[in-house]
Design brief:
- By secondary structure, this protein is α+β, with helices and mostly antiparallel strands.
- It has four domains: about 25 residues; about 180 residues, no CATH class; about 160 residues, L,D-transpeptidase catalytic domain-like; about 60 residues, no CATH class.
- About 40% of the residues lie in helices and about 15% in strands.
- It contains 18 helices and 16 strands.
- The strands form three sheets. An eight-stranded mixed barrel has the order 1-2-3-12-10-9-4-14.
- β15 and β16 form a beta hairpin.
- α4 packs across α6 and α9 runs antiparallel to α13.
Length: about 550
């Protein structure tokens, strides 16, 4: 090879390399906004061509096609269309297919599933649908059809994800195995829909199989049917260190209810106080004329915010396994109740007392393994240091008043008057405080044990009058059970010879201490559900630990109504 040939060859290779580098770095050309097809026979070809161009552009632009189209599952959508040779999936010959109509109807009614239509391109799809119904030229726009097709596919995948997995992050309490929910799973669901021709049934089959979930959906349907439409109100963040921002938000919210004359104009202090007092009186709140948590909670308790809370609770079911055991104990913290389910039937229910907001009852999963009649309470160090030690240091007689004894590391009882309590602290406390068994014991006469890292349990109480209260977030974290004897009877129901109901009651009457085990362990779930369906209606409980508020801010704060 001579020098000139070699130089020519090298130059050609260099040009190819330069072209390759430049072409790889060049952005994908944005597809046309319009592509009117006058010849019907060419319609689907042009839609397919627009799909290919749009998807290439979307993938290169992190899911975004234009100001109104942003795909949440761009790579998944691209993969499906690539396998389908970029053919339209939801339309045919200038018409929505029956499958496309069904999916659009599902999106429109998705609030019945605790979903937000705005997550599934509903506003854009509704605009396209109306435009095509009223404009014969728009019906010939292959670019418009391709955008609608892409949004429907993206909506389908996102609805599949939300119905199967929910929107809440997984944590240590999550009991679902989601390892099989991958890209292949989503495409299989799509092919199932296309095979059966039934969008609604296929998507419904993805939902949790729990009676509580189904009841909550029925309650949600009743709630949605009872309101004409959602109205957007200002949400008030409280507490708020920015007092000016709080006042402005509060004034806008009061104006929206026609309680103050202006949303922005300064209001006299006396008028402001009178307006708040009027609202508080109307809502059955203490008329202080001042901003407080109860007043803000009431103002925030709009229909749209209620819907968000239902959405959160439906998603909480998606953290549970697909099915629960045949027998289990269910404690719902905000509802202040415990239920026992056996063979899919609730066999008993009891009021419970749960932890205060500052000493919360933890969410957990465990198994009740035994129970103790006339238990002895060993006071947790957290309670000793926060509550008891300061009182003991002030007056040692406090120990006698509370029926407490002091024991050392060898479990020997120590005379409390021989101890210099002033020298004891969180960093130096070589004792345990135990409460003597009996009716004065904080655990009452019966305690149910289950393994957990929080040292909490179910138990009776010596303050049984507290069960009559409405808000029963009163304990240090353990769960006090009103119907503790019924629970004990249930646990030993299979061994009536050894543990006849009269036997347990006789032991209690005689104040005999017994540890009862040998019965099959019963799973216990302590959970936080603030909404449920009851008698076909929606029931919402107080968000005692502000868990709903946290999740609302994290996932649903800026959700639009449509």
């Amino acid at each position: 090879m001579n020098k000139s040939t070699h130089a020519g060859t090298m130059g050609g290779v260099l040009l190819i390399c330069i072209f390759f580098v430049l072409s790889c770095g060049m952005p994908t050309v944005k597809p046309p906004e319009k592509d009117i097809v006058e010849v019907p026979e060419k319609f689907e070809v042009r839609v397919s061509d627009n799909l290919k161009k749009a998807l290439s552009f979307i993938v290169d632009n992190k899911g975004r096609l234009n100001d109104t189209v942003l795909l949440a599952n761009d790579s998944l959508v691209y993969g499906l269309y690539e396998k389908e040779n970029f053919q339209p999936l939801w339309c045919a010959q200038e018409n929505w297919s029956p499958l496309g109509d069904s999916l659009y109807a599902f999106i429109e009614q998705s609030k019945e599933y605790g979903l937000f239509p705005s997550d599934y391109h509903f506003r854009a799809l509704a605009g396209i649908r109306n435009k095509m119904n009223g404009d014969s030229i728009a019906r010939k726009d292959a670019a418009l059809w391709s955008r609608a097709d892409l949004m429907l596919t993206d909506a389908f995948f996102l609805a599949t994800r939300h119905l199967k997995l929910g929107r809440l992050d997984r944590d240590s309490l999550t009991m679902r195995n989601d390892s099989a929910v991958n890209n292949e799973f989503f495409t299989e669901v799509f092919h199932l829909v296309r095979h059966t021709g039934n969008v609604k049934t296929t998507l419904h089959d993805l939902e949790p199989k729990h009676t509580g979930y189904d009841s909550l959906k029925i309650g949600l349907k009743f709630f949605l049917d009872s309101i004409q439409s959602f109205k957007r109100y200002t949400y008030i963040n409280y507490p708020n260190k920015d007092s000016a921002s709080l006042r402005h938000a509060l004034q806008r919210r009061l104006f929206e209810d026609d309680i103050v004359p202006s949303a922005t104009e300064p209001i006299d202090t006396a008028v402001w106080r009178q307006a708040l007092m009027g609202y508080q009186q109307a809502k059955g709140l203490k008329p202080t004329g001042k901003v407080n948590e109860n007043t803000v909670n009431s103002l925030n308790n709009t229909d749209w915010e209620k819907f968000k809370r239902v959405a959160i609770n439906l998603d909480r079911y998606k953290l549970l396994p697909d099915t629960l055991p045949l027998t289990y104990i269910w404690v719902n913290i905000p509802a202040f109740y415990m239920r026992v389910v056996n063979m899919d039937t609730m066999v008993m229910e009891s009021r419970v007392i749960v932890g205060q907001p500052k000493t919360r009852t933890p969410l957990l999963t465990s198994n009740v393994s035994n129970f103790i009649i006339y238990p002895q309470w060993t006071v947790p160090y957290s309670i000793i240091f926060k509550e008891m030690l300061p009182k003991i240091q002030k007056n040692v007689e406090y120990l006698n008043k509370e029926n407490l004894m002091v024991v050392d590391k060898n479990d020997s009882i120590i005379d409390p008057y021989t101890i210099d309590w002033s020298k004891l602290s969180k960093n130096h406390f070589p004792y345990l405080l135990k409460q003597r068994q009996g009716d004065d014991n904080s655990l009452g006469v019966l305690k149910f044990n289950f393994a957990n890292k929080y040292s909490v349990y179910l138990h009776d109480t010596n303050a049984r009058w507290l069960f009559s209260r409405g808000n029963r977030a009163l304990s240090h974290g353990c769960v006090r059970v009103k119907e503790f004897l019924k629970l004990a009877d249930f646990l030993v129901r299979a061994d009536t010879l050894k543990y006849h109901p009269d036997t347990l009651r006789t032991w209690i009457t005689r104040q005999e201490k017994h540890t009862v085990w040998g019965f099959p362990k019963v799973p216990i779930y302590i959970r936080y559900f603030t909404c449920e369906g009851k008698s076909g209606k929606l029931k919402i409980y107080e968000d005692v630990y502000a868990e709903d508020k946290v999740l609302r801010e994290r996932y649903f704060a800026d959700k639009s109504i449509l």
